[in-house]
Amino acid sequence: MKKQIITTADGSKTIYFPEWNESYHSKHGAIQEAQHVYIKSGLDFRCKRDKATNLTLLEFGFGTGLNAFLCLIYANANQVNLTYHSIEKFPLNQSEINSVNYAEILKLNPSEFNYLHSIEWEKSVKIHDYFQLKKIKTDFENFKTDGKYDVIFFDAFGPRIQPKLWTKPILQNCYNMMSENGVWVTYSCKGSVKRDLQNIGFQVEKIAGIPGKREMLRATKF
Question: Which of 184, 179, 215, 177 is CA-nearest to residue 198?
Fold first, then answer.
């Protein structure tokens, strides 16, 4: 499938799929979206609410590695021991990885971002004192684990593009994989997703979204 590299409103780049009219990140700002939806509303919220300093996190959709990079930065800055697992069925090629500019925009050395992409799949690697990464090459439907996650980033393509990934069985699997007080976040605010999350047993709230998207969903397992 054809891909294009586009520059979003905050200067950071993302991958765009013309056939779907869909991109990995918001055109209003890739970094801005990731920081608001996943770092502020997910990881930071969980850390501050429970004064947590040792967490396990699962990401649905490694993509460009932006969420993982921002979590690495957060973990180091806040001395949070973060074990980060990320699922991706179709990893980017090296040319596509080289095309994004997150380290440049954030004024950071790109070596750690590049390292996130270079490590072996299916292998747990300590990237920094506070951050351990394992990339898992599989699809969302087939992912199984005996572990429990404190935070889940649900960063799949939108329901319009991949409706199967937003169905109750996938969301139920998320619930089953979460620890008590676990937090699940996504950029979407689709009504059917909210209702399914509630029916499964999550406590669900609509919170402020990013520019161009008024609301997003955050769910907690109590």
Answer: 184
Please give the Cα distance from 206 to 208 (Å, whole number).
Answer: 7
Helix (H) or strand (E) holding 131: strand 131-136
Tokens matching residue 217: 């969903």
The CB-based long-range contact list for 27-30 (8 Å cut-off, 24+ gap) reads 27/212, 28/210, 28/211, 28/212, 29/210, 29/211, 30/64, 30/66, 30/102
- pLDDT computed for residue 1 by the predictor: 87
Contacts of 7 (CB under 8 A, 6+ apart): 13
CB 144 within 8 A of CB 49: no
- What whole-number distance in Å separates Cα of residue 47 and Cα of residue 139? 28
Reference 78, options 110, 54, 113; nearest CA is 54
**pLDDT of the residue at 145:** 93
Whether 97 has a pLDDT exceeding 90, the answer reads: yes
Helix axes 111-118, 66-78, angle to 10 degrees: 120
pLDDT value, residue 212 = 86
Average pLDDT over the chain, rounded to an integer: 97
Alpha-carbon gap, residue 64 to 68, rounded angstroms: 9
Average pLDDT over residues 133-144: 95
What phi and psi values does residue 8 have, to the nearest 5 degrees?
A: -90, 175
* Range 118-137 burial, b when 16+ CB lie within 10 A, else e: eeeeeeeeebeebbbbbbbe
